[in-house]
Amino acid sequence: MSSAEWADGASRAPGPPGFDLDHAGLKAWLQEDDPARLELLWMEADRVRKARVGDAVHLRGLIEVSSHCVRHCLYCGLRAPTVELERFRMEADEILACAQEAHRLGYGSVVLQAGEDPGLTKAFITEVVRAIKGDTPLAVTLSLGERDDEELREWKAAGADRYLLRFETTDPVLYRRIHPNLPGVPSDRFAQLQRMRTMGYEIGTGVMVGIPGQTWDTLASDILRFREFDMDMIGVGPFLPSPRTPLGGQGVAAFLAAPSDQVPNDELTTLKAVALTRLVCPDSNIPSTTALATLDQARGRELGLLRGANVVMPNVTPVHYRIRYEIYPGKACVNETAEACQDCLDGRIRSLGRSLGKGPGGRSSRAM
Ligand code: 5AD
Ligand code: FES
């Protein structure tokens, strides 16, 4: 059954019985604070997760391949104007070594993530993707920002399987405010997501919860957009202010929505958004994000997995680079080696009665 089949015409809005998941319903659930109602939401999200994607938690090794970035996104610590950051770009053999480590640790896939870095050329990424695919059985996900179709096609041909590009918000005014355009570089992430799908990528996207200027209406629309696009992977984590950015300092007040409308960047709201995302996209891969684990170092990872998530992205970047990839401060696990992270996660996942996923863990129900 596809998510659309949940809709039974005029009698009720799409969603499992008792859950109206149209715009008004999502907005009401996002603002719900009755513990008994929330308990229903958690149970339903966990039930749907188990029924549709099972108990396996898929691990994706995250390799932060470059902290260079030409963009000026107002929320991101890697933005070009941040001068006090010591930037790095990994060599091809270093990236391959990380991928081999991920394979050795039993992960089914790796995610190569970076700021928007023209220094990661078409030829360089092609070489790296070929090397990883030639040397390991890993699925390869790219998360390199907004790139040309020609590059995207070549990387797909070299063996890349998936691409992650968060659309960040469905509100076009907010989008433009937080993503100042570079002259001559238009930004349309929805269009890129569409094009990548036709190229054969599995596509992933997501938003931050509580970005200044995000209203309840916006977040409800964001979640509906996940369904409209039938996204394969959906990352939903809290916005964490970075003091190096315009949205982390004193000036942030100018960006906030009216007090009753501004979505808070807290754990509870994030968990509601994760749970609702599972209900509207029952078959998607949904990570329990590092941002959530950073906000609640004790229980964040587990709570994400208990409220709809089925993926974790442990960091396999060498520690000396990882500490310099500072999108926001205090990132969870930043000083752990890949091995230590693996042991810790293994324990956390098993403590929930869940198992570690085997193989690439792709979206199974879509013919790609
Ligand atoms: N807090 C939380 N998440 C952030 N991201 C970027 N900056 C922040 C922040 N300050 C997220 C964005 C981006 C992804 C790689 O990290 O959603 O797409
Ligand atoms: Fe680097 Fe936006 S600031 S991708």
UniProtKB/TrEMBL annotation:
Entry cofactors: [4Fe-4S] cluster
Keywords assigned by UniProt, alphabetized: 4Fe-4S, Iron, Iron-sulfur, Metal-binding, S-adenosyl-L-methionine
Spans through the membrane: none
Pfam families membership: Radical_SAM
Positions with a binding annotation for S-adenosyl-L-methionine: E168, L240
Note on how the cofactor is bound: Binds 1 [4Fe-4S] cluster. The cluster is coordinated with 3 cysteines and an exchangeable S-adenosyl-L-methionine.
CDD domains membership: Radical_SAM
Binding site for [4Fe-4S] cluster: C69, C73, C76
Binding site for (3R)-3-methyl-D-ornithine: S143
InterPro entries per the UniProt record, alphabetical: Aldolase_TIM, Elp3/MiaA/NifB-like_rSAM, FeFe-hyd_HydE_rSAM, HydE/PylB-like, rSAM, rSAM_sf
Domain Radical SAM core: 55-282
Protein known as: [FeFe] hydrogenase H-cluster radical SAM maturase HydE
GO molecular function: 4 iron, 4 sulfur cluster binding; metal ion binding; transferase activity
Highest taxon in the source lineage: Bacteria
